[in-house]
Amino acid sequence: MGKQNLTLLTDFYELTMMQGYYNNKNNEIVIFDVFYRENPSGSGYAICAGLEQVIDYIKELSFVKDDIEYLRSLNIFNEDFLSYLENFQFTGDIYAVPEGTVVFPMEPLVKVIAPIMEAQLIETALLNIINHQSLIATKASRVCYAAAGDPVMEFGLRRAQGPDAGTLGARAAVIGGCIGTSNVLSAKLYDVPALGTHAHSWIMSFDDEISAFRKYAEIYPLNTTLLVDTYDTLRSGVPNAIKVFEELRAAGKMPQRYGIRLDSGDLAYLSKKARKMLDAAGFTDATITASSDLDEYLIDSLKAQGAKINSWGVGTKLITSKDCPSFGGVYKLAAIQKNGIFIPKIKLSENQWKITNPGNKKIIRVYEKESGKVKADLIALADEEFSPENPLLLFDPLATWKKTYLEPNTYTLRELLVPIFLKGKCVYTSPSVMEIRDYCAKEQDSLWDEVRRLINPHIVYVDLSVRLYRMKTDLLDSLAEQTSKSTGK
Amino acid sequence: MGKQNLTLLTDFYELTMMQGYYNNKNNEIVIFDVFYRENPSGSGYAICAGLEQVIDYIKELSFVKDDIEYLRSLNIFNEDFLSYLENFQFTGDIYAVPEGTVVFPMEPLVKVIAPIMEAQLIETALLNIINHQSLIATKASRVCYAAAGDPVMEFGLRRAQGPDAGTLGARAAVIGGCIGTSNVLSAKLYDVPALGTHAHSWIMSFDDEISAFRKYAEIYPLNTTLLVDTYDTLRSGVPNAIKVFEELRAAGKMPQRYGIRLDSGDLAYLSKKARKMLDAAGFTDATITASSDLDEYLIDSLKAQGAKINSWGVGTKLITSKDCPSFGGVYKLAAIQKNGIFIPKIKLSENQWKITNPGNKKIIRVYEKESGKVKADLIALADEEFSPENPLLLFDPLATWKKTYLEPNTYTLRELLVPIFLKGKCVYTSPSVMEIRDYCAKEQDSLWDEVRRLINPHIVYVDLSVRLYRMKTDLLDSLAEQTSKSTGK
């Protein structure tokens, strides 16, 4: 069985607008940017993810007969337009930031250059996919940062917002740093490790706890992790686990990896007690896994209290990004081509920082040469050239008196947007998820530790080039003039 | 294209446990209950949803060749077990509460009676589906309650946690009370209204706002809703919309439904001003739709301030249930059959209220005869009989001195669980989503207004029958004895 065709995964107004453009014979080439305005969970950065699924979606875009019949049945679309849809395919260009890249607010993560009817259709699915996976990858990155090198396993499928949220969410969680997932479908689809051992029901289906432990150790001799909190963690679970480990040791059958899992109670207290009991019995290399309503804040706090946990299973609060369950990516018109030239467009707002950046843009990442750490990002026009052999002016677009000059040869530059589709043809091959995970780890290493702090992190500046800044202020001036004219005020 | 086969949509430990049971030749009939412990968002109730997708999932359960090969590649499953999986199908019984039913904590929403290997496999997908849709249906019910009869449209696809979260979430939102969704795929799949008009980009793609409005009105003469906040709501958007409505009126082409949509700014202030401007021009029946980061609390607050909004588009905060993005449904073993008799099982916890209810159970809803409103729910053993001609004792299972006697013939009773699968065969036909929506509206009407209050609602009691209560306390006593014996304390 294949996947659901997602061509109709769009907002109804995209189709009504498309028909409007069709009837109006208006299908100019436009530029739309996907960007977001605020990092989720108070983070100092986000991790971009979901591009592979965007690529699949664009490649498979096609209104099948059934879709057309459904649209016809709504009695709002005319036959000419429906015929156009029957032959629909994406013919434009798409540029995007590779998955796993560290990104910041206001940067175009995806740039679509296409006839307006095509660019409009794909808005909703693009946002849905990028918003979801970037949200979970960012959350996972924070959770793994708190775990400070301990392995983190994604365990959230049962509480995810539907099958895709579990499966694509696990994919994103691995990109962000998890070592694998309990979700078998995701493990299969994205070739990432499938992880997990047994549940309370395993224990309860036996007459007593130790029989359940013995049987489990017998069947899974390579990795024996025993869940110790079904009846009484310290009085029953841990002593029974130790008894089984002792039996295995006596029989010369010690598992390569073994340990216990705590799933309830106070994890700091229980892990310290359990560690002492295990150590006293000579099981100093037994792993203590914890898995009870964890997130980056609780892991950080448990670590600060010296909890003896060295493996983490994180479920609900990671797979739903519980404290911030949406990523605010938007899709805004940046330019319209007239007579072969892109006319920049801007969307006003009462909030200065919500005003969009016009024109055909690119992102330049500026690294400090000495440390290799990210100094700032620069949003510039696509045809601007920069060289690290020149001095570079950085200034805050909302407070232009905040200026920094970088001396020549003290910094390096990198362009973040790469071509994904050109004239409708895919020109990009997605790396494997585990490769993206490695790349993402390097990306996170390029951040100062201050930017990764879980609470109130240092903010990386995202500046505008001088040319882009001027284009934007000129447009704002002329729009203000136009509005007061049209209302006669 | 069909849907993804979801057979592997399970936690890895379900499969390792299954192999454990297989090797142990232990495949006894067991009973598992799906229930939850706390209503989401501080609600006084929840709406159960997702059953139709559970049914589809169970019907389609089957390990295809590709799945088996994948599992074999993990080098943890033996060939005997893999052959068993190749022939796997669900052979058990499932009882469930119909979709759209009002439910309360601790009640078995789904009851699975099946060989333990089958019951274990389906745990994760059942929870994933029921948790997600019940969460969103409950949220939608609250949002619609706040809207107090105004239509509420589901607009959240772009911020949903992946494609399914958008599509199945929209289904659940309609069950909870929304009149339709912007998500075309969901509208098609579940036969619910597709809704929406146009975006800011439509306006920006024209030389000026009024040309964009005129063209839109020309193309969509039946329902002309104009988005008025692209440039300046009160100085440009509303005056231009009024101008277009005046032109249509002059031409005798007034749309059947028409109005404006506000998508930013202060909705109370803008809607009152816009209402006055529309009324002054004679457009007293123009709809004012609002759609900017809404949820039940903001709608309630806007209503309290006399905002002149009579149609609501609700996105992010509904489709993610932003203030509470997970529904805590769990799946717990309640009994194991030995020699044809169900032996009740219980899961201990340090928290009294987290201890599970053992045995084969049913839910009896008790209505006050006079008002038809829900008085309480009673969890009883499946073979218990109750008649409204007898007096009925209700008591709080955590504070047994809190007792109520209902007089004979002052109450009516209804059993909530209905058979869905019997011996692996589906015996239930799901109603259409719009039928479920109607049923759900009646269900919500059966609640006292005090239970529907958005904040700090009255709590409906969920009591245990005397027999179930005794079974539970007896089990707890014997378990406590057993634990102290096994640890020698």
Kindly describe this structure.
- The structure is a homodimer of 489-residue chains.
- Chain A is an alpha/beta fold and 489 residues long.
- Chain A folds into two domains: 12-136 and 325-485, Alpha-Beta Barrel (nicotinate phosphoribosyltransferase); 139-319, Aldolase class I (TIM Barrel, Alpha-Beta Barrel).
- Helix content of chain A is 39%, strand content 21%.
- Chain A has 17 helices and 21 strands.
- The longest helix of chain A is centred in the N-terminal third of the chain and has 25 residues, at 123-147.
- Chain A is globular.
- The model of chain A has no long low-confidence stretch (mean pLDDT 95).
- At the A-B interface, α1, α6, α7, α8 and α9 of A face α1, α6, α7, α8 and α9 of B.
Tags for this entry?
ligase (chains A, B), globular, phosphoprotein (chains A, B), nicotinate phosphoribosyltransferase, homodimer, EC 6.3.4.21 (chains A, B), 489 residues, 7-stranded antiparallel β-sheet, 2 domains, 6-stranded parallel β-sheet, alpha/beta, pyridine nucleotide biosynthesis (chains A, B), TIM Barrel
Summary of the model, kept short:
Chain A is built from 17 helices and 21 strands. Chain A has 489 residues and is of the alpha/beta class.
